[in-house]
């Protein structure tokens, strides 16, 4: 992959693009992650850089190199790439509102003080729901696990703090299935993946196929998870969940980012002129509202609907991205960050949990985002 050609295509400074790629290579050399794919979108032009190994021990001891098309377990990117757009579409459709009470859709949720919790509070992690729950080690059936999620008590009073909650997005996924009358994976495919031509994106990967980046070693499979969701809750629930379970390529995620840069529009093929009627995934109103702060009253927090905004404690944008940027990370080592002011989107996919959960790509994200934002000439 020629970095000089990439800089010319993207209309970015060569120094910045080289610096971003060099940062990726340093972390691979330091064994932070066995490999990575970097995807960059600028002024409707995309470019990819793949380095290292998707699976160091995949086939008869022969390592499998990363490629542009390598599928990564996106972990919590599922929240903003699957669950968020589907909920926003249902609001666009007049079926839900941000103030719809969850218990009006899922009556069993309306217990233990949760009667007034709203869809909007789940989206912004201000519902007061606890962050997590051990579902996978109880010997429960799938329905018992769902019953436990919906019956879980509050950890705090609503709307006074941000508690980043997988349970909230599990519940949102359940709302989508109830309202649309179809499984979440089908809804995502019909309403998001197919319209955006996200050809590889899926909640139902086939572990028998090749092309997946391996994640953590797991005793139950006597090997590294590959094409099997890493998140234990999602795995126990069959992988089709609102908080985790998405597998996608960097190209899939840049198509999704392009839609957000277009304020909800379905992107045309790159470098083609769009005329006439513009199709949409989301209304301009929904796309705009989602990236405005909804937690300004909570100290140390700056969250939109689903998205992490500049200055939030989970902000991974680095130093140079603008105050209008937004994004999200995934536990396995994935991230997506979008900056409309610079017409820039960055996907960084790593499998940093391959050697365990102690390594971090937080500094790598900041370094890559700084380098690429610094490469934008305005």
How is this fold's topology laid out?
Elements: H1 3-10, H2 14-29, E1 35-42, E2 45-59, E3 62-65, E4 72-73, H3 77-92, H4 102-105, H5 119-124, H6 142-151, H7 166-180, H8 184-193, E5 217-218, E6 223-224, H9 232-236, E7 247-248, H10 250-261, H11 284-290, E8 308-309, E9 326-330, E10 334-339, E11 344-350, H12 362-374
Antiparallel strand pairs: 1-2, 1-11, 2-3, 4-7, 5-6, 8-9, 9-10, 10-11
Task: Give a nutshell description of this structure.
This protein has 378 residues and is of the alpha+beta class.
Features of the shown structure:
12 helices; seven-stranded antiparallel beta sheet; Beta-lactamase; two-stranded antiparallel sheet
Mean pLDDT: 94
Distance between the termini: 26 Å
Instruction: Give the C-alpha Rg.
Output: 20 Å
Helix and strand composition category: alpha+beta
Runs in which pLDDT lies below 50 for 5 or more consecutive residues are 271-276
Tally of domains: 1
Reported for the largest beta sheet, the result is: 7 strands, antiparallel
CATH T-level fold name: Beta-lactamase
What's the total number of strands? 11
Query: Total number of helical segments?
Result: 12
């Amino acid at each position: 992959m020629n970095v000089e050609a990439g800089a010319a295509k993207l209309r970015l400074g060569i120094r910045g693009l080289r610096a971003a790629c060099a940062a990726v290579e340093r972390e691979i050399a330091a064994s932070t992650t066995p490999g990575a794919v970097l995807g960059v979108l600028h002024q409707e032009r995309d470019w990819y850089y793949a380095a290292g190994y998707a699976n160091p021990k995949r086939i008869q001891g022969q390592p499998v190199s990363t490629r542009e098309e390598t599928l990564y377990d996106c972990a919590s990117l599922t929240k903003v790439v699957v669950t968020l757009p589907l909920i926003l579409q249902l609001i666009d459709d007049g079926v839900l509102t941000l103030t719809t009470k969850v218990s009006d859709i899922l009556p069993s949720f309306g217990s233990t003080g949760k009667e007034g919790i709203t869809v909007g509070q789940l989206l912004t992690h201000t519902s007061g729901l606890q962050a997590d729950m051990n579902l996978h080690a109880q010997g429960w059936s799938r329905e018992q696990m769902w019953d436990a999620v919906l019956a879980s008590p509050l950890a705090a009073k609503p709307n006074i703090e941000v508690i980043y909650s997988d349970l909230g997005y599990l519940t949102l996924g359940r709302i989508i299935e109830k309202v649309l009358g179809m499984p979440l994976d089908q809804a995502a495919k019909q309403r998001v993946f197919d319209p955006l031509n996200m050809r590889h994106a899926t909640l139902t990967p086939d572990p028998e196929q090749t092309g997946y980046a391996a994640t953590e070693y797991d005793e139950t499979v006597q090997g590294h998870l590959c094409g099997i969701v890493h998140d234990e809750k999602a795995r126990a629930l069959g992988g089709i969940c609102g908080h985790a379970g998405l597998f996608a390529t960097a190209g899939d995620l840049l198509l999704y980012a392009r839609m957000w840069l277009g304020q909800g529009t379905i992107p045309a093929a790159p470098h083609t002129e769009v005329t006439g009627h513009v199709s949409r995934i989301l209304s301009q109103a929904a796309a705009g509202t989602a990236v405005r702060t909804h937690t300004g009253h909570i100290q140390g927090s700056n969250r939109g609907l689903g998205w992490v905004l500049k200055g939030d404690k989970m902000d991974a944008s680095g130093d140079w991205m603008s105050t209008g940027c937004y994004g999200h990370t995934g536990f396995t080592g994935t991230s997506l960050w979008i900056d409309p002011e610079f017409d820039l989107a960055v996907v960084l996919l790593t499998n940093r949990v391959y050697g365990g959960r102690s390594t971090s790509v937080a500094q790598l994200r900041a370094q890559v985002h700084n380098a690429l934002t610094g490469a934008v000439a305005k």
